[in-house]
Amino acid sequence: MTLPAIEPDAAARPPRIGLLDTARGVALIAMASYHFSWDMEFMGYLAPGTAETGWLKIYARAIATTFLFIVGISLVLSSKPEVRWPSFWKRFGMIAAAAAVISIATRIAMPNEWIYFGILHCIAVLTLIGVVFLRFPLAITLIATMVLIAAWITDNFGPPGLLRSSFFDPRYLAWIGLAVTPERSNDYVPLFPWATPFFAGLSLASIALRTRLPQRLAALGTGSRWTARLGRHSLAFYLIHQPVLIGIAYGLSLLVPPPQPDPTETYLRQCNSTCVMQQGEALCRSFCQCTLEKLQGQSLLKPLQANEIDVQKDERVQTIAAECSAEAE
């Protein structure tokens, strides 16, 4: 009896880990639930800024962190014993094309908040960076990971603005992640700090391959569950789910129209959502409450919310912002 020959390359490849597919599938469901909260806010069922503040903000960041961590792991597993370039470029091309479609579609539909560097753009660029690091010794990847973690800690707990500069504010540089006030976008995932979970996945997977951990995880099964099957088609799900969810939210608005939002609450949420990108939450609450009272006192709140005032050029609004900034500090 003759045993079938096994190609050395196939034998050396890490096994498919169903648990990883399941984790990716669960993250997709979590992402869809968050996006539906954004859709409900967009249709008026939730107050403006709800999806960008509080626990939903933490939820969104946790989901993005999970995705990028898994992307780093998957890149390592799919590139051993060596990078299979046809598959790599096919996958990269699909992600890059999907990112371009999203940018074009949102530029048309939402010109003021279009997605110029979202999660797919970030994954595409990090994939190119990651495949280069796979050719380096593991020590280099570990050092890069430690540097990113140290930079993240410094950015969040060190002196304000130490790593950032307004030089990076324009869209063509904001994707790097060092902007002080980046252009508004409905999905902004710059390289910094989001390269951190990606490199963490890259490092941990590279270490794990030197042990029997991948084989042990593969032996756990779970690859047949619907969440695992969903995880194997993550890009298709990502592109399809949002049009479906926004359609559901729109249909609901026709059947049960949302209540009229309170203008005061709307302003405070929008103000805080924008402010916390640059400052601490406590300072932002003080600043936003101050500007609200002054805008109401000068009867400017209603025309401001109706877009009848150009915030960048109106001296009254600029004066109020300067006065409240001084008071908040």
UniProtKB/TrEMBL annotation:
Show where the Heparan-alpha-glucosaminide N-acetyltransferase catalytic domain sits.
Answer: 16-243
UniProt keyword list? Membrane, Transmembrane, Transmembrane helix
- What residue intervals traverse the membrane? 58-77, 89-108, 114-133, 138-154, 191-209, 235-256
Membrane among the record's keywords? Answer: yes
Q: Which domain of life is it from?
A: Bacteria
Q: Which Pfam families match?
A: HGSNAT_cat
> Is-annotated flag, keyword Isomerase?
no
InterPro entries xref list: HGSNAT_cat
Q: What name does UniProt use for this protein?
A: DUF1624 domain-containing protein
**Organism, per UniProt?**
Rhizobium hidalgonense
